[in-house]
């Protein structure tokens, strides 16, 4: 099981697999079992954004166990959250904000072992 961090700019936290584009993230969701998925909205000028990823996830039924939204775009976060909330399976945990420091530390600790 892996953890995925979608962001074109920010450094990827330890213990996560970086996805810099929507296509990279979709590939990981298709090919791997994903526990935590943390999403950004803005992914670079002219590039598909986080909402386009969420649409593709909903259309294909590709969902991790837990989803966090670390984007600094308030409008993007709300759009992604609403679409995810309306389409996610019941067992998927969705948080309308970034990962808490405790979770980041927990995942980091598993990498050190």
TrEMBL record:
Pfam families: cREC_REC. InterPro entries: cREC_REC. Residues 2-85 form the Cyclic-phosphate processing Receiver domain. It comes from the Bacteria. This is Cyclic-phosphate processing Receiver domain-containing protein.
């Amino acid at each position: 099981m892996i953890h995925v961090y979608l962001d074109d700019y920010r450094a990827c936290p330890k213990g996560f697999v970086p996805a810099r584009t929507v296509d990279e993230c979709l590939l990981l969701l298709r090919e791997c079992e994903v526990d935590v998925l943390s999403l950004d909205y803005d992914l670079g000028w002219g590039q598909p954004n986080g909402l386009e990823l969420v649409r593709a996830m909903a259309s294909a039924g590709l969902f991790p166990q837990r989803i966090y939204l670390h984007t600094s775009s308030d409008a993007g976060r709300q759009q992604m959250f609403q679409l995810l909330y309306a389409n996610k399976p019941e067992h998927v945990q969705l948080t309308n904000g970034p990962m808490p420091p405790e979770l980041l530390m927990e995942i980091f600790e598993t990498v050190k072992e």
